[in-house]
Structures are given as C-alpha cells and as structure tokens.
C-alpha cells in the first residue's frame, strides 16, 4: 500500500527539489526514497524508474519556467518584455539548476507527450517577446534559438559558479539584455 500523501506528483516534486540540492546527475531512486521516507521499491508504484522520474521533472521544470517567463512579460513589449523574460528565466535556472538540467536534451516521445506541451508553453512565452521586434516569420526559429542560447548559457554558467572574476554579474546580465535587444532591432 502506498504511503499516505505520496503520489506521483509528490514523488516528482521531491525528486525535483532533491535534484536542485544535489544535482540531477547525483539524483538516484535510493536517495529519493530516503528523502520521502520509503523503501526504494515503493517509489516504483509512482514512477517507472529514474528515466521516467527525470522526464517528469523536465515537464515540471518546463511548466514552472513557462509560468515564470509568461507571468513576467505580461503587460510588456519590446526591450521591457525581453528584459523581463530573460530575468525570469535566469532566476528560475539559478534557483532550480537540477530540475532545469532535466530539460536539456530530453525529447518528447509523441505530440501527446506532456513534455511537448510543457516545452511549447515556454517556447510560446519567448515567442511573445519577439512580437515586440520586427522579426520576419522565416527568422523566428533563429531568433528563438539565439534567445535560448544567450539566456541558457548565462544562467547555467551562473548556476555553476562559472563567473568568478570581479565584474558584477547583474551588470553583465544587463549587457546581455542590451546586446540582445540591439541585435533583434538590427535584424
């Protein structure tokens, strides 16, 4: 019989929190079982192993990032929307490096896969940012990849303590926003 209060959503939430603490690479079913107070085999009543857990964490992370970015850009356009989206995305990745790591390289198994819907939600939030710029429809994919590369790169480097020299990190991030805004306007 499953432990009271333990269901797939609770297992995934605990796994995501643990991934943020120890890193996704160090997340194991045994460590998660210890965290939620059950024996490891009991977790398999809720998830189908570590790969399934990681996919579910990815879905959770993409939805949370979409909520953060989508909420941040409400009422903004152009550079203001870009700055709000970039800051919200950076804050999410820095606060949740383990769960964000689960989103990298994972692909939906079908159009009905919850991973596809979650990924589309985040993509839609960034696509909304581009509406404030004169980006040709044929260039939207390129612009989205550029935004993702810039925001992802900065945030993951910061989360991994990759900026160890003396310049202020927030000031550097503002440079990134200005650089991106100028680039999108120049297209």
Structure notes:
By secondary structure, the chain is mainly alpha-helical. The protein has helices at 8-22, 29-36, 40-43, 50-73, 78-95, 97-101, 114-130, 140-159, 169-186. Helix 5 (78-95) packs across helix 8. The protein is globular, with a radius of gyration of 18 Å. The model has no long low-confidence stretch (mean pLDDT 95).
Strand count, sense and barrel status of the largest sheet are: none
List low-pLDDT spans. Answer: none
Q: Assign a percent range to the helix content.
A: 55-70%
Query: Roughly what is the average pLDDT, rounded to an integer?
Result: 95
Task: Return the structural class.
Answer: mainly alpha
Overall 3D shape: globular
Count of helical segments? Answer: 9
SSE order: HHHHHHHHH
Radius of gyration: 18 Å
Distance between the termini: 60 Å
Q: What's the β-strand tally?
A: 0
Strand content: under 5%
Give the helices and strands, then pairings.
Elements: H1 8-22, H2 29-36, H3 40-43, H4 50-73, H5 78-95, H6 97-101, H7 114-130, H8 140-159, H9 169-186
Helix pairs in contact: 1-2, 1-4, 4-5, 4-7, 5-7, 5-8, 5-9, 7-8, 8-9
Keyphrases for this structure?
187 residues, mainly alpha
In short:
This protein is an all-alpha fold. It is built from nine helices and no strands.
